[in-house]
Amino acid sequence: MSAYFAFARSAFHSQLAYRNEVWANIFGKLVQVFARVAIWQAAYAGVGAIVVDGVSLQQMVTYALLGGAVMGATRPERIIGEIGRSLKTGDVAVWLLKPLSYPLYLFANECGSFGYRLMTQVIPTVAFTALFYGMLPPASLFDGLMFIAFWALSFTLLFLMSALFGLVAFWLMTSFSLDWILGALLQLFSGLLIPFWFFPEPLATIARHLPFAWVVYYPNAVYLGRLSAADVWLHLGLGLAWAALFLAGVLWLWRCASTRITVQGG
């Protein structure tokens, strides 16, 4: 495990070399958050109410800020791109000679990058916008603690989804467009743009049961107290089941990809 910790630490420190990128990313995140909040302010102003379907404008502002925090610290396109580059250069074949796991290396590398983006981009962005717009506290201490658990689950699921999509590149021989496909699915079915309580039926019911819902919607719903304690535990268990399923898929695909590399490489 010390080797994987070293990979995570190396990924964290390597990000420090691009300090100018930090300011550009913070500015980009601020623009995204301001845009999302402005959309909801305009939507509520259009209906002339501060509460729509039991959801207040302040709750939607908080939801928009949290959505940026949950998604902002993980970059699926970088994970998929890393796999694509390793495949293109042939570096991925080197992992067959090492007593290490390539998927675990990717996870350790993303953990280091996650910590860096969390401290330098996400927290400053959320803190600034929260002071500007106001941000509701967790509905309760229980909801606040469970939000952290759901956020950790969100990070794990998003990584596993990205790794799964990235490993498909071994059969396509390119990762081109794979990050676009995953990004489009996340935009629509994670609840990042529109919470599921505003979705029409039966689309809302379908979206709540897809694994993408655990990336943004459920962490935010837990924070805002939209779920009962029983539902929180239920959906945490379902989210863990999705994570286990994706983990099995990633390990199976990597095993198949390893065999493919060995056969083609002689």
Secondary structure: elements and pairs:
Elements: H1 2-15, H2 19-47, E1 51-52, E2 55-56, H3 57-72, H4 76-89, H5 102-133, H6 141-167, H7 169-172, H8 178-189, H9 203-209, H10 217-223, H11 229-265
Antiparallel strand pairs: 1-2
Helix pairs in contact: 1-5, 2-3, 2-5, 3-5, 3-10, 4-6, 4-8, 6-10, 6-11
Shape type: globular
What composes the largest sheet?
A: 2 strands, antiparallel
Please state the CA-atom Rg, rounded to the nearest Å. 20 Å
Classify the secondary structure makeup into a structural class: mainly alpha
Which stretches are poorly predicted, pLDDT < 50 over at least 5 residues? none
**Tally of extended strands?**
2
Q: What series of H and E elements makes up the topology?
A: HHEEHHHHHHHHH
Roughly how many Å apart are the termini? 31 Å
How much helix is in the residues? over 70%
How much beta, percentage-wise? under 5%
How many helix segments?
A: 11
| pLDDT averaged residue by residue | 83
| Physical arrangement of strands within the biggest beta sheet | 1-2
Brief sketch in words of this structure:
Helix content is 75%, strand content 2%. It has helices at residues 2-15, 19-47, 57-72, 76-89, 102-133, 141-167, 169-172, 178-189, 203-209, 217-223, 229-265; strands spanning 51-52, 55-56. This is ABC-2 family transporter protein.
What do these coordinates show?
The structure is a single chain. This protein is an all-alpha fold. It is 75% helix and 2% strand. It has eleven helices and two strands; from the N terminus they run ααββααααααααα. The chain has helices at residues 2-15, 19-47, 57-72, 76-89, 102-133, 141-167, 169-172, 178-189, 203-209, 217-223, 229-265, and strands spanning 51-52, 55-56. The protein has a two-stranded antiparallel ribbon with strand order 1-2. Helix 3 (57-72) packs antiparallel against helix 5 (102-133) and helix 3 (57-72) crosses helix 10. It is globular. The relative contact order is 0.13. The model has no long low-confidence stretch (mean pLDDT 83).
